[in-house]
Amino acid sequence: MNKDKISHRQMQQETERRLEQKLQEAKETESKNSEYRTAVRLLSRVPGNCPVSKCREIVFPSNLMMHMLHKHVNAFGSTNSEIYEHKPLIMCFDPNNFTEFGVNHCFATLMYGGKKGRIATRPGLTYLSNPNSALINDHHRFDNFLPIMLIVCRTTWYAQLKDKHLEAQLVSINARKASIYVFWLVAPKTTRKLYYTLTVYDRYYLNSRSVVRVVRDYTQSQNPSEFLPNEDNYLLLRDSEVKSFMSMSHGEATPQLRQGIPIELIIYENPNNPPIRHSSQRELHAALKQAQDVYIMDSVPRLRGSTSRVTPAKTKKTRAKKSRTKPSTSVSECPISLQSIFKL
Q1: DUF4729 domain: from which residue to which, for each copy (predicted)?
Q2: Which of 160, 152, 158, 168 is nearest to 200 (CA)?
């Protein structure tokens, strides 16, 4: 009877503890949402220039989605797609379509919708950004998505110089031999930083370059000559790197290979929680033991191996006095024990 009372009391205490934990989590969530609601109300609604050089329109943050869908979706060589958190998007960059210097091109128009299949995680509902306005017809499904544009610009290394007079002189002398491509993402200002990983591959996915960056506010200056010296939220590709990624390392081109360089984009809100499975402690210990066994197998024959020597002919010598010093250790003996090497 006493045991039943004790078990019932323990169950009741466990239930109360879980309820308190859930209540605490609910309070923390409500507190965060309150902060986000305040932050989203304080977001600037000041319009900015469209980041595309050949587009002269001034766009409000809440209208950028509408502007992007109507003006830049069908741009030549661009990609239009929905994108979700931690879901890779593969695009193809053909440098032959971006030959002009100092011109910002829209390489991709993206609609970011939080976690795929979870409507409650859309940016307009999680207070990451303001909802979009002025959308019509079937575009209303993007009311709470975040518009993002991937911009590419061909410029020179000299754009990284803070001395713009010197930059202009060097560009006039040697612009063609200092060409680079700059990639970066822009979006309306958000209440929290939005991160992305941009990876460039060769055609066979054997070599790559990858960077982790933050999406830039589209109302800021989008001239690489102005933000390259002071920021690092972009990816640079030299002309030589582009040619290297474009080169065919396994013979001639095949119909299955698209013209251009594969680029992978992954967007996420929390950089401290990537969807990567790390090895457990047990797996690490097993790997360590396996490495030790391999090391022993490779080392023991070399350490314990006997050495053959040629014995010189005996000669009659006068008997010398015995040395008081101890004889030296044999060469074939190992002065270090394996246990001391692998002692953890």
Answers
A1: 49-247
A2: 152
Q: What is the DSSP string of 113-136?
A: -SSTT-GGGSTTTTTSSPPP-S--
Inter-residue contact 78 to 109 (CB < 8 Å): yes
Over the stretch 164-208, which tens digit does the pLDDT of each residue have?
899 988 988 888 888 999 999 999 999 999 999 999 988 777 888
The pair of structure tokens assigned to 93 is: 């960059």
Q: Are 199 and 210 in contact (CB under 8 A)?
A: yes
Class of domain 46-268: mainly beta
Residue 212 backbone zone (phi > 0: left; psi -120 to 50: alpha; other: beta): beta
Q: What phi, psi does 154 have (nearest 5°)?
A: -95, 125
Question: What is the percentage of the chain residues whose pLDDT exceeds 70?
Answer: 74
Written as one letter, the residue type at 70 is: H
DSSP per position, 246-300: HS-TTSS--TTSPSSEEEEEEEES-TTS-S-PPPPHHHHHHHHHHHHHHHHHHHH
Burial of 61 (0-12, 13-18, 19+ CB in 10 A): buried
Q: What is the dihedral of CA 97, 98, 104, 106, to 10 degrees?
A: 30
Q: Is 237 or 176 the better-scoring residue by pLDDT? A: 237
Would you kindly state where each structural domain of the chain is located, as residue ranges?
46-268
Question: Cα–Cα distance between 62 and 51 in angstroms, integer?
Answer: 15
pLDDT digits (tens, 9 = 90+) for 242-299: 888 887 544 444 555 556 889 999 999 988 765 544 445 555 445 545 544 544 544 4
Q: How many Cα atoms occupy the beta-carbon half-sphere of 39 within 13 Å? A: 16
CA gap 54, 105 in Å, rounded = 8
Strand partners, 209: 200
Prediction pTM value: 0.71
